[in-house]
Write a structure and sequence with these properties.
binds guanosine-5'-triphosphate, single chain, transmembrane, 19 helices, six-stranded mixed sheet, membrane, transmembrane helix, alpha/beta, 15% strand, two-stranded antiparallel ribbon, binds magnesium ion, P-loop_NTPase, Rossmann fold
């Protein structure tokens, strides 16, 4: 990756924030005039508002309640740590929109907020109840402060406003009712169905409304669910890879004072417990052939626009790898493949991201990588993201240090480049890179290791905890995916 690209990637969220801010200002200043005129033309919507006359409510009160309801919901969004920036952006946009409408003599100039303070309060209370529910009273709860319904309601209100505004602005239609005080009058129909406005204006407004809805939809999204599947031959480090990803998420959790729990699965905790020892060794045994472990957890990715990312995968014994393609493609010879294998294949099909492991140790020892089944699997399951991972890269890190005199952890981007060069010399790996797409790179991860008295590579432990490298970048990659 070149310098500027890396700079953008590292500051991705800040760029995104500036981009969103500009977009919201554009939406507010271009769409508000449309809304204003739509209101002046509106027949159906106006009639809906006129029904108030039947119960004798003034338009001013309705406007006061709706405006305070909306700002009450926005306020909740701003209180929600995950939606703070989005809330502020929408708040600024709404103010710009209100000012634009005021300059057309609409809304604010006609309402007296202070004179109707009881209705302002009513709107805010309704907003609080709709958006916060019971959790708003629960100040001391230690769960994450998420006001999901507030964000959803803001999204719903704004989208509805824009769509209705767009239709009222551009459509002319016969409307026979006139609602007056205490009565509904039939009117002779004056107009026919027609589209109002130039086609260029129509197109531009349609694009703006569409883009606005997509943007606000992204604003109110909390979760990015990722269904992974980690593929690798026997002993390639599948189980430890998933444990490493979880340990990294756990470290972030403790560092960031995050409130969102990781919710690890029981199987994952069992694996973590196995690794968590004082003595030398891995203590994580080879996954047994009949065993399937459901490993999942979630973490929060991003500071400006945080999102919950749910990582889930199934851990299985590496022996199955070579049988997976046959099952997926339906070319299995055996009449009745084992259940475990069927479930593995099902999960590969369901996953949206395949994580393919390449064992650095095997490469260094010139042993067969046994990654040939990846080709069939990637081909049989089109339209999946593919992430290539070099596991056990500590052996390459050592080589990197002796060749370049650099520490792999400190110079991680250079190390990653080095790993790609080294592994790329293998023909099969090269073909795999080509298969996975032009932009694909191999991402190295490893546990810091030392060689013990009997010549075995064992994880380094400081007070019982292992140190991992590359998983931090991995979580970022996965979160942005
Ligand atoms: N040097 C080094 N060795 C590792 C690393 N990760 C895993 N290993 C070694 O690889 C072995 C297998 O790791 P596992 O995670 O159990 O591999 P697996 O793919 O789940 O294996 P199966 O369950 O048998 O398919 C471990 O016992 C370690 O000896 C690493 O980061 N560095
Ligand atoms: Mg395993």
């Amino acid at each position: 990756m070149s310098g500027p690209v890396r700079f953008v990637m590292r500051n991705r969220e800040k760029f995104l924030l500036v981009g969103y801010a500009i977009a919201i200002l554009i939406f507010a200043s271009l769409l508000s005039p449309m809304l204003g005129q739509a209101w002046q033309r509106a027949e159906l919507t106006r009639a809906l508002f006129q029904t108030r006359l039947l119960i004798g409510l003034s338009l001013e009160i309705i406007a006061v309640v709706l405006v305070s309801l909306f700002f009450g919901l926005l306020g909740l969004m701003i209180l929600d740590t995950k939606k703070r920036f989005q809330g502020v952006l929408l708040f600024v946009g709404s103010i710009v929109g209100l000012l634009a409408l005021s300059s057309m003599g609409l809304l604010l100039p006609n309402i007296d907020l202070f004179g109707n303070i009881q209705w302002v309060a009513a709107g805010l209370v309704v907003g609080g109840v709709v958006g916060g529910g019971r959790s708003i009273l629960d100040v001391n709860s230690n769960g994450p402060r998420e006001f999901r319904s507030a964000s959803r309601a803001v999204y719903f209100l704004l989208s509805a406003l824009m769509v209705v505004g767009f239709l009222e602005y551009h459509l002319e239609y016969p409307f026979p009712l006139e609602i007056a005080r205490n009565e509904v009058v039939m009117e002779p129909v004056a107009s026919e169905f027609a589209v109002v406005g130039e086609s260029s204006e129509l197109l531009m407004n349609a694009v703006l409304v569409g883009a606005f809805i997509v943007t606000t939809k992204r604003f109110v999204q909390y979760d990015a669910e990722r269904d992974f599947f980690v593929l690798g031959p026997t002993g390639s480090g599948k189980s430890l890879f998933l444990v490493g990803a979880y340990l990294e998420a756990l470290e972030r959790f403790t560092q960031d004072d995050s409130e969102t729990p990781l919710n690890p699965s029981q199987d994952l905790i069992n694996l973590v417990g196995a690794l968590d020892r004082q003595g030398d060794g891995w203590f994580v045994e080879a996954t047994r052939a009949q065993e399937l472990e459901d490993l999942h957890f979630q973490y929060v990715h991003g500071n400006v626009f945080p999102k919950n990312v749910e990582v889930s995968s199934l851990d299985y014994a590496g022996e199955w790898l070579e049988d997976i393609p046959d099952i997926i493609m339906g070319t299995e010879d055996a009449d009745d493949p084992p259940n475990t294998l069927k479930r593995v294949a099902d999960n590969v099909r369901q996953a949206d991201t395949l994580i393919l492991l390449i064992d650095s140790n095997r490469w260094l020892d010139d042993e067969p990588l046994e990654i040939e089944p990846y080709f069939d699997i990637v081909q049989a399951t089109e339209e999946k993201n593919v992430i290539l991972i070099a596991t056990k890269a500590d052996v390459l890190a050592e080589q990197f240090r002796s060749e370049r005199g650099l520490d792999a952890q400190q110079y991680f981007p250079d190390f990653k480049e080095y790993v790609n060069e080294q592994l790329g010399t293998n023909q099969t790996v090269q073909s795999l890179l080509a298969q996975a797409g032009s932009a694909s790179e191999i991402h190295p991860v490893y546990y810091q290791t030392t060689v013990d008295d009997s010549g075995e590579r064992v994880p380094m432990r400081a007070n019982g905890t292992v140190t991992t490298v590359g998983f931090d970048e991995l979580l970022d990659m996965v979160g942005e995916n």
